[in-house]
Each structure stands twice: as structure tokens, then as C-alpha cells.
Amino acid sequence: MDSTSWPDQLRRGMSLLVGGAALMAGLVGCRDAASPRVAVFPVIGRVTFQGQPAAGAVVALHRRDGPSEDAPTPRASIDKDGTFRFTTFEGGDGAPVGQYVLTIQWHKLVKRGGDVVAGPNVMPRKYASPRTSDKLITVAAGENDLKTIQL
Fold it and tell me: Mean pLDDT, the chain, as a whole number?
């Protein structure tokens, strides 16, 4: 039997537990910080709807082979002139190389009472889902300047 007192044994056990937890937290933190991001490449384009820029619409790229664990879904808001620049990690950085289905939603602002809220999607319904959109996009290494997407 150990000759140290019960409170001393408890303190030593707690020290080992706290030290082990700190070590594990440090290892997990280092792993996340050291994980490299998947490479992304600039992707720019333009969307028009019924001949006019789709200012305020939102476009997204959905991988044709399913969601990726390496990167979030690239998205972009369409500017006043109809142009957009995809963002995956940081503003306008682009998208990873791959085959994508493009979705587009445009909820124009409407007045409801005294508030201004997003109204219904004015784009044709088929463009709201990667299962039904027929807009296929390929992102390659380097600059990607998409043709104008006319809806």
C-alpha cells in the first residue's frame, strides 16, 4: 500500500488528468492549424435574366461528384452589372478545381408592412437546386472567366 496520504494522491491524479487534457487539446489544435486548404482558383462570370443584370442574385457551385469535405460550397453575390466572383474561403478567392452544377436564386427585396424583406425567388425554379439545374461549370487550375450566363 502507498504511504502517501489520500489528498496527495488525489492532487497527483488531478495533475495528471489536467496535464493529459492540455496535451490532447494542444495536439488537436496543432492538427487543425496545420491542415492545408485545398487550392482554389479565381472564377468570375456574369448572369443576366431576361436580358438584364441579375443584381442581388446569389450563385453557388455544387460538386457534381457530391459534397467535398475539403472545402465549403463556393458562393457569390451578383453585382449591379451582373458580374460575380466566387468565394470559397476568403472574399473572391475562387473555387477548387472540379466539375460543378451552378445554382442561382434571386430573392428581390419587397416591402411588407413597414419592413423590407426578401421576396420569393424570381428565377425559374429549376436553377435553385443542383438536382435540376442544367448549368454545368468546369473550374480549372488558373484563371476561370465564364461566359455570360443568360437566363
Answer: 83
